[in-house]
Amino acid sequence: MSIAEKTKAMRSGVAIAGLLVAVSIAGGGVTTAAQAACDLQFKPEEGAELTMLRWKRFIQSEEDAFMKIVENFKNDCGVTINVQNESLDDVQPKASVAANVDQGPDMVWGLYSLPHLFPNKLVDVTDVADLLAEKYGPWVPSAVKYGKKAGTDEWIDIPIAYNGNYINYRKSALEKAGVDKVPATTDEFLEAARKMKEAGMPVGMALGHATGDGNAWVHWALWAHGGSLVDENDQVIINSPETKQAVEYVKELYGYMAPGVAAWNDSNNNKAFMSGEVGMTNNGASIYPAAKKDSPEIAEDMDHAAWPIGPVGKPTEFHIAYPMMIFTYSKYPNAAKGFIEYLFQPEQYDMWLQAAVAYLTPPLEKYESNSVFTDDPKLSVFADAARNTLTAGYEGSVGEKAASALAEFIVLDMFANAATGNMSVDDAIAQAERQAKRVYR
Fold it and tell me: Which family does it belong to (predicted)?
């Protein structure tokens, strides 16, 4: 072994005893140090190089850890991955363009049911899903629903993690408003929001086209009141008394919110919370580590809580699934599969979860015991996000139609139009019904 190869093997952290660079005189084949260290079922193709599209970080340490895994994969398996970062809201349109023209990134790390917008353009990853379930599983139920192509047992993506979207609040804001704790019911939540507004520390939740935070809380509100876009047969049922109750609830809640939330995207609530403009919002576990780093006094004052229960009498949480998919036009599908397998190895995945500071919740049972969810009690609620979340489509399928409805913000716009007075409650619901029927025709 050359000195360069020994150095490379040491850096990968893999002890390779008696490694030989074997050259076959007949075939001229070479087994490199990287190939020998790449202990994977899915072996990368010779000369493989990948491009991946993912969303821009919300926690720097998460991105640093992910890029470390990318570096480790290159060291161990000899495959370079060029990672392209886009804003959360730009991933879906860019992935859709790539699917349409059969050109672009080999892999996409997307959101929710994005893969189901173009299921026939994606590599079958059932073998990867089965391998991971055998090693680290089982999968949480929502991962199975998100992963499988509608009406089949074929996996078209691997949900690599979830982003728990919960209530973030300042304890001092509740105290100032005379509220003992985060309310457990929707009625109590409305009353608490009124008191917080009067105390000058209002609630603030996005009603603009915020793919993560906006979709999360309005779907919670809809489902908490018994409403649904479609039924179990994908028939549109949005125009219902339950939906009207939910929309009227959100319209009243909007009156107690901070000004400007109708234009908020996924970053505005973070800024408003850190600046003291709002005392409560919904978000992943990204505000808290940022506060610990830059504003320890805010972090000390912060905590998190689960969503209140509505008239349906059960949790109706909606958290972001993060599916990773491989396009069929990729020249190196095995290398892409190999990276997903590599990502889930304990020495990589556990390190990544720790660095994400509970912003990411695992979809496989083995990793639910990661200490990141117990080391700090303020982060414990995020441990259940993957297991408790409902899925895009809710009572219906999670296929292409549900993905389209989510991408078009049908439910979010319904609430926003009514809450802001842009439309009456009935007109906002009627418009959502027309839009949904166009998608679910």
Answer: Belongs to the bacterial solute-binding protein 1 family.
